[in-house]
Amino acid sequence: MIQPPVTNTSYFGAISMIDNALTAKVPMNSTVLGQAQGFYAGAAQKELGFLMAMNFAFKTGKYNGSTITILGRNTAMSEVREMPIVGGSGLFRFARGYVEARTKWINLKNGDATVEYSCYVLHY
C-alpha cells in the first residue's frame, strides 16, 4: 500500500501497487510465466470495490516480451469479477477481450490473496 485509505471503515482512497508472479496455474509453485504488475485503488465507499490497472508481462516462452493490459472495476468480494482487456504489446498488439477473476485464497488481515485469472483474448 502506497496510500492509506481515507477512513478506517473502507478501502476508499487507498492505493496499492502490485508486482506479483504470474503463474500458469493457481498453485504458487506452478510454472512462472512472468509478472502481474500494476495498481488497484479503493474506488467504492460502500463496498469493497477497486479501480484496477494491471499488465500481465510475459517473460518466458512464445509470449516473452509481450503484455496484456487490463483496466476495470474489481469488486473483490464477488465470486467472479469481469474486467476488460484494453490492449497489449508484442504478440498481443491490438488485444481486446476480458478476464474473469476468481479469488482462490485470501488473508483478510494483510490482504494477501491468490487470484485465478481466466483470459479471453482476441489479437492480430
Automatic annotation (TrEMBL):
<comment type="similarity">
    <text>Belongs to the plant dirigent protein family.</text>
</comment>
<keyword id="KW-0052">Apoplast</keyword>
<dbReference type="InterPro" id="IPR004265">
    <property type="entry name" value="Dirigent"/>
</dbReference>
<dbReference type="InterPro" id="IPR044859">
    <property type="entry name" value="Allene_oxi_cyc_Dirigent"/>
</dbReference>
<keyword id="KW-0964">Secreted</keyword>
<dbReference type="Pfam" id="PF03018">
    <property type="entry name" value="Dirigent"/>
</dbReference>
<comment type="function">
    <text>Dirigent proteins impart stereoselectivity on the phenoxy radical-coupling reaction, yielding optically active lignans from two molecules of coniferyl alcohol in the biosynthesis of lignans, flavonolignans, and alkaloids and thus plays a central role in plant secondary metabolism.</text>
</comment>
<protein>
    <recommendedName>
        <fullName>Dirigent protein</fullName>
    </recommendedName>
</protein>
<comment type="subunit">
    <text>Homodimer.</text>
</comment>
